[in-house]
């Protein structure tokens, strides 16, 4: 406690300031400077006092304190003489002087001996005085004067002393004041306390206390003297403090508050807090920084802490001045409740903390002022806040578990960014719970309770703490990105993009993690995801990724293990890093490595490696040539570049050399040439629309490439010679729709007579690979892309190719084409089919190329070609039914791995024979059976009788069959919807052909758009599929933006189709089974209506709508989905409000839905719109609840309706059951107990009908016995989900009602299961009953403890209903074992363990309440489901289901994960307990109650 100093010669120099945490020594005054005045010494120095046990508590405490001081000092000797420069002014000062105290030395008293000797001397002086005890009053008067505010010795009395003992070379500084010595004397204690309290009260009433300059305030010093008397004088001290506090000034109150923790006894802390709450009605005044710090150190009861929690919550909600300085101390104050360590307190504490953080950040987000926003991102405050939370989580296991339990049970609407951060803290503190926390997050992501919006909010509100725990989050995301579930993987992908923008320090770590995922050979989808994400990061953050260029170099070594689409992604990334935009720094080492790898791949013997080289070289060409920033002007349009030598030196010439090098390497392979042209066209298209980069292809390079490819196409495929017969097939120029008009009057007639040479190239292929028929469509696609970019979207130079003739067999459009086809041998039939396929692919590529042209004549020819295309595809559908076994369509894309293609072809050949019969059955041919009398046709001189008309069943659900593999349409096809008028005519009138879209054309376009949207939204594309190079897959946001422009036209089409449907329904009086509703034209109307609904459902379910960068596009899309007259009135409204209007608008189309597939799509659309409308805005929760009720009503209407197939028969089969399953889930979703009870009551009355043959439920006419498990499973799942959600929600009411309602519903399900005996129903009931029992063990038994004494009759009724369930489960298990039903046997071990645990815990519960006599455990006989005793086991196995229809798999979202960790860890799965089945077979009895 003491620090030594050398003695000083100057007595006037003041002592150093006192540090309360240390005690130090001061120098002794030299004897030369001492005065000659001597003070009479005591007769003898008192020795250490012996303290009797009978001494009173306070005196004993003070005496022990003095002994401790003496032991520390180790000295009791005092000076014999003390010199003083002045005489005492009062009896009080004289006593001090006689005791050996120097009064006028500096800022403190100088004692000649230690405190114990001083106390002894003071006692002796006062007691031995002849005026004792009257002199006590005189001493009291002198003390009162000395403690005056302006007294010179007041501060000396209340502050530390200097001890200067004779014979020692050093002086000591003591922290104990002289006033403490007075309190150690029993007869002085009360008088001194009275003076002290009076002075405290006097000073506290003054606003400003005048003290000597340089002196400390007296009030804190006076209060400090009471700290050693808090135990014995607690009541007295508190009574004075209360009076003083009530009457004191504001500054005095603050002094009292700051010293309250030392002055007041622990028993008075609660009362003092009540005093503060009464005096400070304003929370702002109550929660002053000093007050909060004092409250944090008090020992408070649970009741007082509860009041403080309420005031703190009120303070944060009402007062925006709660700064980051005070908030950490408020959190620390709240965490004092951890001392209570009860579930109730922990639950309230967690709830308060969540409310504090959520309310604070909601207020910050709503406040746009600059006052709050800078402090919200204060790093030190944020780390301090969560530092206190981490301390609390480490300190209390119950607190940790309560956080975990609370977050696990939060409803979707309440889960926020703070809860996400807390989950990271839980993992950080206890890594053993990582798997459990990950499962909670994974489940919430799957159910879409947690979206990337929450992570974005966490980045905004808690960026510093998120950065601190980024390693935990990265570990979780590393697992999530490997998930096969699309929603979870997409969340991880979006999370990486968000985290990449937090800070530069983690960008390299993210790239390393993603690079690590690309080397994972176990999951191809993970590699693809990582490559896509790295490419997106490079496009959005080129500078940051460019700094890590060398980090990605190992990716080149991984190319041999990648698929072709993955190779494209990897090379896209590497090439644009090696050859970045001119303003960025290039990476020379990476450039050399890429060029070397690409050249080696192109000369490799393996075709697969060659394809990799082609893909890599195309990406390299694009990156190298993209250096132009200026758009081509009019002079450049007329410029010609004849050869590579005319190109300027630099990157453009390097790109041209790469093209020539690639073509020379693959010049002998038509498939590789076709792949090269397709890849080049795709990359140029995607990059041309890329708004993230301002750089385009070099103008000179573009001109050279455009002229080169146009010349090659003209030389290879444009023919002007006279067609002749080949292999006995007469060829003709057909389908020429070019004609002279005012726009091409100056065109040479030879141009109008050209034709595309398809048949000759198929029947007599050329040895030159560049002239192969396979190259036709890919090369024209590239030519059209180059012309679009060179001439700025104009194809006028090549528009003759749209309507030019095609060299085809003369019978191509013959009415008797099927008979002619059958007269050729199999090899010739295959070549004829190839001609049809190549013709379709050529027309497809020309339609897509010219669909964007504005010229009227061109657009007319596009529509004429489209009508012709549909007709050819219908003819080809019939021809394929007559195709020879083993026929494989010609390749329309060239990316597939050759090995995989061979495997697919072999498997297709094996399946062909089996499929031929089903295809033929679907076609009704009424032609005469005279084919046997016809010989094979050697030439066309033989004339055949005309065939009768051929009719076939139209498949309205699927446009294309398994063999109809055509070239994919480009995105430009959607422009036909925007520009061309629509008519309901079927077929089109002759004058409408070329001017209108009909039902066939509309179905054709909508089917393609829906397929593309499904690929973009649902991720249906395979990593090995060639569609991955399409622009809508490579750049989905561009496709969505283009489609948004056409949503208005699609909405208009929807109105037209719905109006026609409603008119027809009125004509048939809404009888859905009327045959007029199943005619071909009306079936086409229903199909197009369903495609429109499907398109909207897919469009608004895009995951990227949660990204704030897509907000403008989403707003425009929602507006275009409404009718034209409503769009103008909602331009300035928010997304949520517009989505609400769109929801109400599409809700009206429910009556127009006539197919169950469309009903499901309408429900999905409504759910997507509900999600968008409830994402933000006022009353979002209320709006979401109302819309959820509307969706339930819609699903109810859909389920109560009879559904018919396009043929007019009732819907049935596997696909119908999948749709019904989704409608059942929508019908039951979020149903309260009362609604579930009503549904069960109605089903219980009707389910008896299912036991009759081919009978259905009256309420749900599509639900029969075969698919009734769909309904039962939905009821079981909603029951368990509702119970689990209620268990995790705190409710102060009668919690036993929850279990009463649930067991009542479970018995209702049991009654239905017993009526409709079906093995699948038994398995479903057993599975969900076991979940109920586990929830009862975990959450229900504590509730039973509260009811066993209050309402025993309710408990008895509950146990009786529970007994009904457990008895049935027992009989079901026995019955299943006897018939060897393996579907149920696997549940028996875990169910038995659960039942045994339940029996013994209920027994223990009743025994603890002295009711054990009312409970009896008995042995049940083994009986079957009908109550008959089981004697001998049956020898046959029972199937899982007796239905003749395929039932969708069980929903994995309702399983044991609804339980918490402490329950699931103790449960034993059936797979690990199979060995116990043998043991159970040896016993014919089992325990149950």
What's the gist of this structure?
Helices cover 57% and strands 3% of the residues. The protein has 1489 residues and is mainly α. A hairpin with a 6-residue loop joins strand 4 and strand 5.
Strand order across the largest sheet: 1-5-4-3-2
What count of helical segments does DSSP give?
Answer: 63
Q: Let me know the average pLDDT.
A: 79
Report the count of strand segments. Answer: 15
Shape: globular
* Main beta-sheet strand count, sense and barrel state: 5 strands, mixed
Return the structural class: mainly alpha
Taking the alpha carbons of the first and last residues, their distance comes to 72 Å
Outline the structure in words.
The protein is mainly alpha-helical and 1489 residues long. It is built from 63 helices and 15 strands. A 5-stranded mixed sheet has the order 1-5-4-3-2. Strand 2 and strand 3 (110-111) form a beta hairpin. Helix 4 runs parallel beside helix 7, helix 7 runs parallel beside helix 9 (234-247) and helix 52 (1156-1173) runs antiparallel to helix 53 (1180-1199).
Characteristics of this structure?
disordered N terminus, mainly alpha, 15 strands, four-stranded mixed beta sheet, 1489 residues, five-stranded mixed beta sheet, disordered C terminus, 3% strand, globular
List the helices and strands and how they pair.
Layout lengths: L24 E3 L29 H17 L17 H8 L2 E2 L7 E2 L3 H14 L5 H13 L7 H5 L1 E4 L6 E8 H6 L2 H19 L13 H7 L9 H14 L2 H14 L5 H11 L3 H4 L2 H8 L5 H17 L8 H8 L8 H24 L6 H4 L2 H17 L1 H12 L8 H13 L4 H13 L5 H10 L1 H6 L1 H11 L5 H14 L7 H12 L5 H17 L1 H5 L17 H15 L9 H15 L4 H19 E3 L5 H4 L13 H15 L4 H19 L7 E2 L1 H19 E2 L11 E4 L14 H4 L2 E2 L2 H5 L12 H15 L9 H4 L1 E5 L7 H6 L3 H25 L5 H26 L16 H24 L1 E2 L26 E2 L22 H5 L19 H20 L12 H4 L1 H32 L12 H20 L11 H11 L2 H4 L7 H13 L8 H18 L6 H20 L14 H15 L4 H14 L21 H20 L8 H20 L3 H29 L4 H28 L2 H4 L2 H21 L9 E4 L39 H4 L10 H7 L3 E4 L1
Parallel strand pairs: 3-4, 10-11
Antiparallel strand pairs: 1-5, 2-3, 4-5, 6-7, 8-10, 9-11, 12-13, 14-15
Helix pairs in contact: 2-4, 4-7, 7-8, 7-9, 8-10, 9-10, 10-13, 13-15, 14-16, 15-18, 16-19, 19-20, 20-22, 22-25, 24-25, 25-27, 26-27, 27-29, 29-30, 29-31, 30-31, 31-33, 31-34, 34-38, 35-38, 38-41, 41-42, 45-48, 47-48, 47-49, 48-52, 49-51, 51-52, 51-53, 52-53, 52-54, 53-54, 54-56, 55-57, 56-57, ...
């Amino acid at each position: 406690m003491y620090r030594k100093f050398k003695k000083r010669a100057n007595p006037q120099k003041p002592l150093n300031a006192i540090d309360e945490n240390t005690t130090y020594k001061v120098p002794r005054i030299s004897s030369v400077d001492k005065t000659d005045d001597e003070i009479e010494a005591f007769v003898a120095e008192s020795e250490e006092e012996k303290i009797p046990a009978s001494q009173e508590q306070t005196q004993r405490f003070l005496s022990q304190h003095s002994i401790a001081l003496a032991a520390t000092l180790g000295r009791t000797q005092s000076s014999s003489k003390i010199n003083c420069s002045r005489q005492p002014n009062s009896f009080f000062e004289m006593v001090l002087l006689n005791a050996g105290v120097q009064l006028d030395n500096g800022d403190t008293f100088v004692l000649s001996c230690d405190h114990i000797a001083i106390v002894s001397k003071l006692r002796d002086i006062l007691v031995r005085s002849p005026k004792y005890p009257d002199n006590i009053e005189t001493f009291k008067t002198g003390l009162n004067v000395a403690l005056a505010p302006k007294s010179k010795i007041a501060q000396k009395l209340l502050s530390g002393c200097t001890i200067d003992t004779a014979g020692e070379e050093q002086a000591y500084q003591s922290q104990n004041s002289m006033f403490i010595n007075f309190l150690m004397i029993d007869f002085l204690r009360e008088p001194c306390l009275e003076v002290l309290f009076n002075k405290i009260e006097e000073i506290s009433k003054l606003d400003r206390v005048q003290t000597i300059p340089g002196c400390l305030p007296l009030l804190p010093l006076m209060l400090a003297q009471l700290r050693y008397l808090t135990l014995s004088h607690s009541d007295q001290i508190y009574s004075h403090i209360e009076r003083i506090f009530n009457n004191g000034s504001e500054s005095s109150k603050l002094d009292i508050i700051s010293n309250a923790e030392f002055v007041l006894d622990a028993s008075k802390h609660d009362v003092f807090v009540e005093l503060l709450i009464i005096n400070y009605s304003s929370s702002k005044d109550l929660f002053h920084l000093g007050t909060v710090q004092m409250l944090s150190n008090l020992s408070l009861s649970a009741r007082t802490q509860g009041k403080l929690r309420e005031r703190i919550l009120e303070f944060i909600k009402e007062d925006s001045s709660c700064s980051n300085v005070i908030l950490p101390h408020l959190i620390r104050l709240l965490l004092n409740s951890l001392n209570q360590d009860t579930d109730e307190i922990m639950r309230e504490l967690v709830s308060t903390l969540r409310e504090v953080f959520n309310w604070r950040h909601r207020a910050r987000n709503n406040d746009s002022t600059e006052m709050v926003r800078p402090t919200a991102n204060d790093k030190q405050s944020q780390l301090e806040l969560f530092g206190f939370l981490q301390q609390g989580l480490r300190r209390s296991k119950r607190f940790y578990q309560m956080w975990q339990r609370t977050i696990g049970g939060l409803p979707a609407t309440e889960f926020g960014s703070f809860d996400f951060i807390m989950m990271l803290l839980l993992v950080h503190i206890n890594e053993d719970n990582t798997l459990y926390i990950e499962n909670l997050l994974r489940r919430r992501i799957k159910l879409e309770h947690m979206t990337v919006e929450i992570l974005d909010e966490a980045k905004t509100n808690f960026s510093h703490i998120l950065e601190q725990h980024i390693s935990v989050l990265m570990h979780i995301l590393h697992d999530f990105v490997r998930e096969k579930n699309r929603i979870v993987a997409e969340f991880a992908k979006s999370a990486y993009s968000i985290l990449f923008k937090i800070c530069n320090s983690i960008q390299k770590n993210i790239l390393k993690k993603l690079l690590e995922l690309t080397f994972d050979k176990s999951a191809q989808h993970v590699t693809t995801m990582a490559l896509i994400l790295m490419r997106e990061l490079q496009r959005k953050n080129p500078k940051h990724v460019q700094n890590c260029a060398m980090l990605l170099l190992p990716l080149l070594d991984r190319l041999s293990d990648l698929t072709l689409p993955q190779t494209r992604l990897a090379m896209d990334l590497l090439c644009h890093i090696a050859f970045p935009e001119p303003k960025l720094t290039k990476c020379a080492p990476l450039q050399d490595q890429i060029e070397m790898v690409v050249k080696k791949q192109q000369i490799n013997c393996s075709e697969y490696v060659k394809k990799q080289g082609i893909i890599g070289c195309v990406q390299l060409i694009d990156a190298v040539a993209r250096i132009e920033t200026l758009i081509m002007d009019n002079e450049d349009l007329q410029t010609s570049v004849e050869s590579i030598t005319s190109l300027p030196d630099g990157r453009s010439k390097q790109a041209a050399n790469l093209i020539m090098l690639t073509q020379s390497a693959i010049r002998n392979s038509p498939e590789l040439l076709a792949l090269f042209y397709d890849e080049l066209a795709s990359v140029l298209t995607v990059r041309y629309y890329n708004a993230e980069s301002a750089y385009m292809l070099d103008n000179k390079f573009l001109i050279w490439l455009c002229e080169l490819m146009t010349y090659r196409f003209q030389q290879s495929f444009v023919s002007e010679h006279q067609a002749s017969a080949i292999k006995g097939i007469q060829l003709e120029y057909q389908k020429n729709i070019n004609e002279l008009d005012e726009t091409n009057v100056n065109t040479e007639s030879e141009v109008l007579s050209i034709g595309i040479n398809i048949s000759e190239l198929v029947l007599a292929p050329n040895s030159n690979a560049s002239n192969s028929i396979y190259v036709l469509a890919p090369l024209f696609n590239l030519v059209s892309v180059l012309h679009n970019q060179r001439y700025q979207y104009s194809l006028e130079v090549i528009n003759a190719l749209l309507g030019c003739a095609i060299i085809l067999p003369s019978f191509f459009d013959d009415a008797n084409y099927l008979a002619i086809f059958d007269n050729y041998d199999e090899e010739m039939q295959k070549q004829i089919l190839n001609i049809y396929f190549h013709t379709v692919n050529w027309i497809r590529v020309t339609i897509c190329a010219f669909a964007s042209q504005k010229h009227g004549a061109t657009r007319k020819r596009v529509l004429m070609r489209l009508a012709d295309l549909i007709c050819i595809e219908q003819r080809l559908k019939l021809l394929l039914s007559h195709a020879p076994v083993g026929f494989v369509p010609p390749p329309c894309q060239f990316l597939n791995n050759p090995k995989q293609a061979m495997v697919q072809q072999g498997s297709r050949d094996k399946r062909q024979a089996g499929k031929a019969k089903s295809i033929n059955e679907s076609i009704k041919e009424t032609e005469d059976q005279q084919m046997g009398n016809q010989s094979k046709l050697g030439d066309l001189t033989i004339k055949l009788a005309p065939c009768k008309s051929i009719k076939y069943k139209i498949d309205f659900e699927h446009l294309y069959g398994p063999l109809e593999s055509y070239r994919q349409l480009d995105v430009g096809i959607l422009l036909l919807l925007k520009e061309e008028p629509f008519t309901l005519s079927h077929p089109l009138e002759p004058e409408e052909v070329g001017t209108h879209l009909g039902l066939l054309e509309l179905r054709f376009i909508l089917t393609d758009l829906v397929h593309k949207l499904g690929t973009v939204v649902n991720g249906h594309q395979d990593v090995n599929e060639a569609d991955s190079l399409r622009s809508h897959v490579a750049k989905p946001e561009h496709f969505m933006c283009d489609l948004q422009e056409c949503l208005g036209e699609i909405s208009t089409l929807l109105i037209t189709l719905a109006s026609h449907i409603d008119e027809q329904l009125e004509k048939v009086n809404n009888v859905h089974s009327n045959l007029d509703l199943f005619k071909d034209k009306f079936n086409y109307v229903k199909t197009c209506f369903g495609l429109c609904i499907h398109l909207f459902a897919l469009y608004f379910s895009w995951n990227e709508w949660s990204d704030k960068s897509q907000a403008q596009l989403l707003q425009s899309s929602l507006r275009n989905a409404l009718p034209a007259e409503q769009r103008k009135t909602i331009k300035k409204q928010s997304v949520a409000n517009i989505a609400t209007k769109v929801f109400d608008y599409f809700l009206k189309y429910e009556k127009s839905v006539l197919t169950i597939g469309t009903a499901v799509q309408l429900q999905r659309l409504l759910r997507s719109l509900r999600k968008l409308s409830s994402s933000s805005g006022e009353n979002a929760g209320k709006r979401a609840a109302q819309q959820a009720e509307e969706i339930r009503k819609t699903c109810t209407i859909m389920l109560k309706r009879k559904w018919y197939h396009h043929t007019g028969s009732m819907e049935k089969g596997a696909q119908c059951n999948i749709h019904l399953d989704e409608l059942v889930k929508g019908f039951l979703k979020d149903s309260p107990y009362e609604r579930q009870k009503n549904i069960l009551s109605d089903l219980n009355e009707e389910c008896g009908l299912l036991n009759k043959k081919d009978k259905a439920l009256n309420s749900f006419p599509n639900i029969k016995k075969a698919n009734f498990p769909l309904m039962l499973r939905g009821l079981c799942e909603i029951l368990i989900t509702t119970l689990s959600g209620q268990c995790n929600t705190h409710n102060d009411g009668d919690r036993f009602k929850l279990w009463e309602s649930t067991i009542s519903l479970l018995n209702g399900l049991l009654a239905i299961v017993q009526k409709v005996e079906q093995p699948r129903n038994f398995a479903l009931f057993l599975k969900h009953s076991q979940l109920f029992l586990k929830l009862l063990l975990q959450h229900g038994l504590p509730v039973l403890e509260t009811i066993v004494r209050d309402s025993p009759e309710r408990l008895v009724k509950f146990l009786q209903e529970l007994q009904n369930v457990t008895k049935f489960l027992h009989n079901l298990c026995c019955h299943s074992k006897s018939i060897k039903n393996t579907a149920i046997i696997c549940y028996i071990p875990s169910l038995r363990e659960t039942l045994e645990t339940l029996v013994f815990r209920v027994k223990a519960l009743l025994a603890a309440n002295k009711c054990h006599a009312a409970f009896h455990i008995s042995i049940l006989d083994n009986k079957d489901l009908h109550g008959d005793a089981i004697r001998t086991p049956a020898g046959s196995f029972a199937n899982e289901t007796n239905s003749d229809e395929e039932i969708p798999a069980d929903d994995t979202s309702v399983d044991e994960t609804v339980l918490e960790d402490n329950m699931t860890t103790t449960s034993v799965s059936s797979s690990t307990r199979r060995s116990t089945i043998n043991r159970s077979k040896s016993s014919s009895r089992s325990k149950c109650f």
